[in-house]
# Entry
Amino acid sequence: MATYAIGDVQGCVDALVQLLDAFSFDRSRDRLWFVGDLVNRGPDSLATLRLVKELGEGSITVLGNHDFHLLAVAAGYAKKHRSDTLDQVLAAPDREELLAWLRQRPMLHVEGALAMVHAGLLPQCSVATAQTLAQEVETALRGASWREFLANLYGDTPDSWSESLRGADRLRVTVNAMARMRFCTAEGKIEFRTKGETAKAPPGFFPWFDAPGRASRDHTLICGHWSTLGLKLRPDLVALDTGCVWGGSLSAVRLEDRKLFQVPCMQCQAPRN
# Structure
């Protein structure tokens, strides 16, 4: 049995199938961990959702910002962007079944010394604290008031964590950190505009995984979300967004021995600078 962590698929289902073939995936014994952003920007979000859903308990997927965007658009609480490729999902006969399945996915997955999240964790959040916050979001998204949760999801404020936060603000900052964050201060203030390489960090900000005193360093964090960061493998970090949808590659790491598997992707969007 082996566990493979896979980077942002974003609707590139052909690349995903090729990647599974590259490491001879055996669904009877192997497990797949997806870092989120199964959908959007790539050519076939519908087939991607159907494939991963059909894998059942053999796969674990955490929610990414594009997955949240699909849910919010489908519920009528967000507008489609010009570059979105979600129409097939929204028009599919099994749309509601797929969306209901997506709403059941976790924000954070923890096993032993491994923790998987789409974007990152705030510096003051231990993995145990992050689990508690993730569960609050999961309860809201899976519960009877999930539409109200999505209606209040969007916004850049508050931009830092405080124990005094309650209600929609508390849930929103958790989602923003775990599904959107790249740079933050040592105190945990999030910067939302900068998307480039780590050298482009604004003054006073750090890549979230290099924030001084980060409380989650006792775990290896597995993440995606940051295509301009690319592949980054170190004892406390496995970053797997290698820009598949931007003409890069789709990557997987076998977690037992850190062996890397990659397949090239056909360019689906213009490459980012």
User: Anything to note?
Assistant: The longest helix spans residues 127-142. The chain has a mean pLDDT of 95. The radius of gyration is 17 Å.
